[in-house]
Amino acid sequence: MTMRKRLLGWLADAALILYFVFALFPIAWMVILSLKPTNELFSTYFSFSPTLDGYRTVLGDSEGIPFVRFFVNSLVVSVGAVVLSLLVGLPAAYASARWRFKGSENLMFTLLSFRFAPELTVIIPLFVLYQKLGLFDTYVGMIWVLQLVTLPLIVWIMRSYFADLTPELEQAALLDGYTRKQAFLKVALPLVKPGVAAVSLLAFIFAWNNFVFPLILTSNEAQTVTVGALSFLGGDRPKYNLTAAAALVSVVPPLLLALTIQRYLVRGLSFGAVKS
Amino acid sequence: MIVLRGISKTYGRTTALDDLDLEVREGEFFCLLGPSGAGKTTTLKTVAGLEQPDSGTVELDGKDMNGVEPYDRGVAMCFESYALYPHKSAYDNLASPLRSPRHRLPAVQARERIGETAELLGISALLDRPVGQLSNGQRQRVALGRVLVRPARAFLLDEPLSHLDAKLRQQMRAELKAIGAVRRTTTLYVTHDSVEALALGDRIGVIRDGRIVQTGTREEIWYRPYDTEVARAFGRPRINLLPGAVAPDGGFRSADGEVELPIGAQASCGTQVLIGVRPRDLTLGEGPGHELTGTVYVTEVLGRSVEVTVRLGEQHVSLVAPRGDATGLRPDDPVRLSVRPENLLLFEADRPERPGRRIGP
């Protein structure tokens, strides 16, 4: 019996390791690719003379591709989109959790539908609109259009956090002499901080990874890393090592963010999920 | 002064309040007593402005509160769930009203006020702790403190002693009314504990199914209960209710014919009735008033007194006698009981749709 159990344990471990290798292989391949010199780019062997030239080129703007600017653009646009969504979405989530009115569910569903409607269906009209309104290739335009990605996420997740709070806490605040706005800011909001941290990270990642909107709605000034990294594939020879280096550099901000707020994240992701 | 007129409130298909009328006089300590689900908390929240009634009016100090926000009503409420701010310390919870725009006190005065209140409730040593680390009884006292710390037009207290242990509850019950703020302030106190209501209430309102069944002083509620439910709600052991009918001479005749009491009922012969007598109003042995005979069924010692259950025909009645009178009583011993006529209550028989109303004396 114990023998059998031990065997099963080994098998499970082996299966997990196998999956681990499978899951991490693309990332390992990217790292290898980014370290290859240009002349060894197309060899599939694992032995090569590693070099950081790829990173130097990408960060040094020497190919005529302003990757650092794309990176900054991504930061500005993603952070901007998340901040704007929080400013609008937190009060919206709170209101929708507390007050049911005629059509409130339809409103919430409409908001959600932005998430599952494919972006490509609206991209052409958006392109035309943006051209006419002067929003094409601007920060404001990108932050605005990314609300389609970040706002529904923040509103829907935060709504369940607020719904889990007993309304009596805010009622107590009202009777203590605070207005509804103050009750929201001083009582409800501090209690959902873990949720705000978790949902902000998720929204940031979605905004950061978005590809279609910057592809169509930016050309240069407001272009982001997701589209910018592809520039290295253009020209007469695709420079896969540079693309890989660019992709790896652009993983850094979401990764750092996730690590810094990890403490909140674990609590946050489980907190809203289970109704107490 | 709190006046509710014709308040109705429904949640979907359930009726929480059904045309409820209530008046709490200036400075009065009013106890609202009822079982869970009777509408007690909804009543409090309606007064506080946290629930909007479907119809009816709420007046505070003679002013119609329709459309007045909770923070402008100037009432303080103690929630049954405590509703303490979990991310703050006990001190900050108590300080919350004193830091709000409407009841702001300078920090020094606020600290003094909080100190006094904490002292009063025996929570001075707990002030620095986050409320998450407090026991239920301690939380309840902090919640009560958050009400008492501030001036208010009225205090609304929702079962504020329910989670204290028995000893502390008794002590707090004795002290609550002596607290200066409570003595001066109109208080609407909700409870399901009839002992608490009798001990605390200047007047008591009995609520059932979203309506006030009876309002009165403790004497009125005790001696003149509106119906059998109210009579049963007060007093332990419970009131004895013997089923029977009105005899041709206007007397009471029990269903099995074993008990007859000349009561002069103002009801037609044959009316199905219940006669009520409280256990402490039945005396063992001969005494003034009507006499009954039966046999001992069981006795139970309650400290200095004894609860004796006596079989009268097919009925059992209980009575509480001094221990000396009941020593030596064994099951099946014959006993005589006496009851003064003024201690008898006559009710119509309970019906499925409503408890029997008192029809005499």
Automatic annotation (TrEMBL), chain A:
Residues 71-261 form the ABC transmembrane type-1 domain. The keyword Membrane applies. InterPro entries: BP-dep_ABC_trans_perm, MetI-like, MetI-like_sf. The keyword Lyase does not apply. Keywords: Cell membrane, Membrane, Transmembrane, Transmembrane helix, Transport. It comes from the Bacteria. It is found in: Cell membrane. GO terms for biological process: transmembrane transport. One of its GO terms (cellular component) is plasma membrane. The chain crosses the membrane at residues 7-32, 70-95, 107-130, 142-162, 183-208, 240-261. PANTHER family: INNER MEMBRANE ABC TRANSPORTER PERMEASE PROTEIN YCJP, MALTOSE TRANSPORT SYSTEM PERMEASE-RELATED. Belongs to the binding-protein-dependent transport system permease family. This is Carbohydrate ABC transporter permease. It comes from Streptomyces cyaneochromogenes.
Automatic annotation (TrEMBL), chain B:
It holds the Pfam family TOBE_2. Keywords: ATP-binding, Cell membrane, Membrane, Nucleotide-binding, Translocase, Transport. Coiled coil: none annotated. Residues 2-234 form the ABC transporter domain. Signal peptide: none annotated. GO terms for cellular component: ATP-binding cassette (ABC) transporter complex, substrate-binding subunit-containing. InterPro entries: AAA+_ATPase, ABC_transporter-like_ATP-bd, ABC_transpr_MalK/UgpC-like, Mo/tungstate-bd_C_term_dom, NA-bd_OB-fold, P-loop_NTPase, Transp-assoc_OB_typ2. SUPFAM superfamilies: MOP-like, P-loop containing nucleoside triphosphate hydrolases. GO terms for molecular function: ABC-type transporter activity; ATP binding; ATP hydrolysis activity. PANTHER family: MALTODEXTRIN IMPORT ATP-BINDING PROTEIN MSMX, TREHALOSE IMPORT ATP-BINDING PROTEIN SUGC. This is ABC transporter ATP-binding protein. It comes from Streptomyces cyaneochromogenes. The lineage of its organism: Bacteria, Bacillati, Actinomycetota, Actinomycetes, Kitasatosporales.
